[in-house]
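To: structure desk
From: M.T.
Subject: fold request, one chain
Message: Could you run this one when you get a chance? Sequence is below, nothing fancy, just the single chain.
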Amino acid sequence: MRILLIVNSFATSVTPRNTVQVHQYLARHHDVQVVETSERGHATRFATDAVARGLDAVIAFGGDGTLNEVATGLAGSNVALGVLPGGSTNVFARSLGMANDPLLAVTQLTAGLDGGLVSPIGLGEANGRYFTFHAGIGYDAEVVRQVERTFSFKRLVGQPLFVYAALKAWFVDYDRKFPHFTVTVDGRRIPNGFSAIVLNTNPYTYVGKRAVELSRAASLEKPLVAVVFRRLSTPLMLSTLWGALRSGGASARRGLEIIEGVEEVSFDYPAEFGYQLDGDFIDETKTLTIRHRPESLRLIKPMLVEY
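Reply: Done. Structure tokens follow.
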């Protein structure tokens, strides 16, 4: 097979050494070309070019942001996507059951590729851009923006930086007194939205080795799940996190709505609000429409083995 390996050398777990090792392993049975990204959006352009050249597969080696860009470039084509964990969290790769070590993960990915484990999956689409595992609107997006403002520390500090950003946004930067948008889920209007997460798969993220599972109903083979906070109090957030960490899913309650089987969800407000996709802050907007796009991407699934 003709494969393009897209590498983000700035990602947390990517090194020159493991890049060479990954390339060598893939190249044992396949024709592999390696390219490195140098700026935001670069991976999407590489992926789009791979589609134009008729390659068989593109493998994203980097963090979830690199994966998002590659998926956006491949969506709607016949070129298969493979993923290798190279970031600090690697939500999507780990949600597939892959090892968090790229050298172990490449053996799983190659076994899946050689075994024909390629199948279509659904994506989310937000204002024309795709996402693989979730979109965050409001508070969730503000946390990601805080992390990106201190990006130079991300490689050194890792996940503690997310904790700091979450606390800073909660107590300082994000307005928790007034709503930030109105939500419409498949025609049902929900006023007074403070924050929201739209899931394409589960878990939402990881804290160390522990999965944060907001809804086990979220799946690549099903429509989206919308989690909408209608207030942002400390007790509500703590109870939601406790359920997500301990019981395998948050529970709907006063101030928190969880809607499954969502085909379309839109957000609007007179003032701008921020949103992020797959852990990358995208923009501020007054209107955001998210749709489920079934079978829009061919995914190489790993063949999982015990180590």
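Reply (cont.): The mean pLDDT is 93. Let me know if you need anything else for the meeting.
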